[in-house]
Structures are given as structure tokens and as C-alpha cells.
Design a protein that fits this description.
By secondary structure, the protein is of the alpha/beta class. It is built from 9 helices and 8 strands. It has a 6-stranded parallel sheet with strand order 1-2-3-4-5-6, with helices on both faces. The protein has a two-stranded antiparallel ribbon with strand order 7-8. Helix 3 runs parallel beside helix 4.
Length: about 220
Amino acid sequence: MSAVSIGRILEISERYDEIYPALGIHPEEVKMNKDIENQLESVIKLIRANRNNICAIGEIGLDHHFVKEKELYPLQTNIFEQMLTLAQELELPVNLHTKGGEKIIFDMLPSFNLPNVNVHWYSGPEEFLNLGIDRGYFFSITPAISYSPAVKKTVLTVDIEHLLLESDGPVKYSGKDGTPAMIKDVLDTISNLKNIPIDKLENQLYENTKEIFPRIF
């Protein structure tokens, strides 16, 4: 996420009351934006200036799966560390991308005092899934639950008190563009997998959202 895209997100959230932005630098930015290192300071300043208008720092993290260029990993780690420091300073929860970088991320997190942690679309090793559960992290579930054994395992392993839902658009799920409308199918699938009535699950997810993102409420 660049300074330009952050500005656009803030602009959209100002126009629509139902949108609550989270801001941060995505780990794939090191590959997509050759100037991100030079933009880092201005992005941090922009986030600080809008601290009262955002509900979280994210999506941030490490990606050693889609980003194959190992020479970019030190910059990725540096940016992630600065984003965690910012979240601690602003007392905001974080939304994490962990693909391929699970061990490094889970080793880093205890060094920071964060209000809450959400692990987005977790599909990594069971070891770190269990560690996240032990630490009280939340895990947000995407429409990939319809075909991904790893996402289904996350749902079956994590208690409903620590689950959230997300669409993560505009990525594609089995060839279809991800949209917020898909959340209903995610809810139905979780209800069936965990054998929990829809209304009970909805109520719990609402309470979870209030706990991790209190600024929305």
C-alpha cells in the first residue's frame, strides 16, 4: 500500500460512513513498488496524522511465498517491524499477512505490545496455528474455505470466539472475483463445519469484531 493508495482509502472512507479503514504497507509492496523504501517515512506520517480515523494497522506482514526474490526480504522485514512499532505507538490492532513467513512473524510479535492480532487467511504450518491460538490471536476466514483444506483446518481448530470473516477482494476464488457478498457463503460453511447454528455464530462474530476493532463501535 503506497501513500497514493492510502490517500484514496481515506477519501473513500470519508464519503461512506460504513467504511472503517485499516492502513499499512502490504509485504508484496516491496515487489510491486520499487520506491517503497523512499516512501516509507511519508506513509508512516500519513498514518499517524489519521490515527483517529482508522481501526487497525494492516494488512502488514511478511510474504516469502508470492515474493520469490530473497534479496527483498530484509526490506520486507524492516517495513514490517516499523509497522508493528507504529501499531504499538498508536495502540491499534494489526491485520497480518503471514504467507511463508510464519516463523519469523510469530517470533517477532511478542516483542511488541499490541491490543490485538488478527491473522488473515491462515494456511501455514499447524505449529504456528496452535501457537496463535495459545496467544489469543484472531483468525479471519476468506471464501477460500470452499476449496482449501488448510483454511478448513483453521476453522475446525480455532474456537468461534477467535474467528472473523473477510472477503479479501478483489482476489479470485476458483476463478470468481472476491466480493463482500461472498461473506454469507463463508458464514454458512463455517456453521456447517462446526455444527453451530447461524444465529449463534453471527452473534459471536459480532462480539469478536467489537473486541478486536473497538474503534468501529
